[in-house]
Amino acid sequence: MRSLRFYRILRTLLQHGVDEMIPKRWLPWYVRIARRCLFWLRNKHKDKPLGVRFRLALEDLGPVFVKLGQMLSTRRDLLHPDIIVQLAMLQDKVPPFPGDQAQRIIEKALNDKPVEDIFVEFQQVPLASASIAQVHTASLLLPDDSIKEVVVKVIRPDITATIHADLDLMESVAMLAARYLPDGKRLKPVEVIREYRKTLLDELNLAREAANAIQLRRNFSDSEVLYIPEVYSDYTRNNVMVMERIAGIPIGDVETLADAGVNLKLLAERGVEVFFTQVFRDSFFHADMHPGNIFVDASRPEDPRYLAIDFGIVGTLNRDDKRYLAENFIAFFNRDYRKVAELHVDSGWVPSHINIEDFESAIRTVCEPIFEKPLKEISFGHVLINLFNTARRFEMEVQPQLVLLQKTLLYVEGLGRNLYPDLDLWKTAKPYLERWMHEQVGWRAVLRSVKEHAPYWAEKLPQMPSLVYDTLQQSKMQMKIQQNYMEELLMQQQQAAESRIWAFVASTLSVSTLVLVLVAEEPWWAAGAGAVALFSWFKAWRDRPRHFIK
């Protein structure tokens, strides 16, 4: 089965001419010969551009490859811009599976209860269908006898085995690419596929998605800019999730938003605020913010609010990455290219042997022409492309943990500019980042640290006298041990010196004894020298150091 799947993948890629993406100079001779041997798998779409062919091939291969293409559409450091444009067009809309089958899956997941006992109404015809799951509308009967309009998300049956098989094949190909392609080590194809595996398998677990939604909802519980629907955990399992149904205008429907009188400038700026709040305040962000997952509550047009769904993919950042990112952003805003170069080296993103001055000069060459334009005309995506191309020359390795962040940032910029073309992403973000940095390193950070650690210190305070006493006693004992160590070391050095002197005397007398035996007429001279030599050897052995200090 795995061999057949591999052949189908190979056939689809070759019949779409996707192999042309790899320069021939990179291919070993035996690979080129093997390609010629597969003469029946010829490119059937020569009239189409390479980017279009690649997109069509991924669509033919199914949902796993479609989602891989969606992820690659954010990797502007890997692919040509024309291919990126095509991959961004990928949609994972697929025909739904039967509604009665979805109903049986729901009933089995919820303790074999009939849907009539759980929902007042359940629509077998799905509201939407995607590659991993489909969604049905329903009316949920709550324990307090109230009725809530909900959506029920159901994982497609038998999708798990297919996904695992395809991911295993992808990883095998990535290993070959990492080994044989000239740029394979830097681009980390194996790490990229493994990150993709984790992301995709997380999407298969609706209990995890529900937990992500609950976390985001708690983070924005008092927010006027973002609303996260409520998840009903009692009715959620690994393959079924029940969530509050929301009503809003799709973020991509700008005409409808404008007709509703929505303040598009404020909405665009709030999108930037939501993103940076999630990343730098919470270190937990919605990483799949494409137009299909974002809606707008237009009930208050002058004070619009975002509505988000689909929380299968979230991103997190550790403290160090978050700090380096914020400092990089601010350094860019301030055109401090030396700081940018140093931060890349300090963070380990660029090797330490790279010449800082050369790297600084390369970054300046990329950024200065951009900053000559009005800020509203600067595209962060364009800056990223140029910086990636520059960093490649300086051996910058791909950072898998930042892939989701890059993807989300490009989504945010795209959504914002679609809503309000004059959106100044940098001007909007700079005050927020500066304020966050001040909170991290200023007096507020000191107060927050004291507040966070106060319970710990309050617990340890009664123990402080005994801890101080124990520390002083240990210090005193350590000094005494150190003194004894030095005395013993000096004694051993003295013993070793005396032993070497006696060994030298013994060696000299031994040679003299041998000479006297050969040339002296009187044997008592040789006997006397030999006796003294033996005595000297005995003294050298006796005065040697008895043991060694470790």
From TrEMBL:
GO terms for cellular component: plasma membrane. Pathway: Cofactor biosynthesis; ubiquinone biosynthesis [regulation]. Residues 90-344 form the ABC1 atypical kinase-like domain. One of its GO terms (biological process) is ubiquinone biosynthetic process. GO terms for molecular function: ATP binding; protein kinase activity. It is an enzyme of class 2 (transferase). InterPro entries: ABC1_dom (IPR004147), Kinase-like_dom_sf (IPR011009), UbiB (IPR010232), UbiB_bact (IPR045308), UbiB_kinase (IPR050154). Pfam families: ABC1. ATP binds at residues 127-135, 153. PANTHER family: CHAPERONE-ACTIVITY OF BC1 COMPLEX CABC1 -RELATED (PTHR10566), PROTEIN ACTIVITY OF BC1 COMPLEX KINASE 7, CHLOROPLASTIC (PTHR10566:SF113). Is probably a protein kinase regulator of UbiI activity which is involved in aerobic coenzyme Q (ubiquinone) biosynthesis. This is Probable protein kinase UbiB. The gene is ubiB.
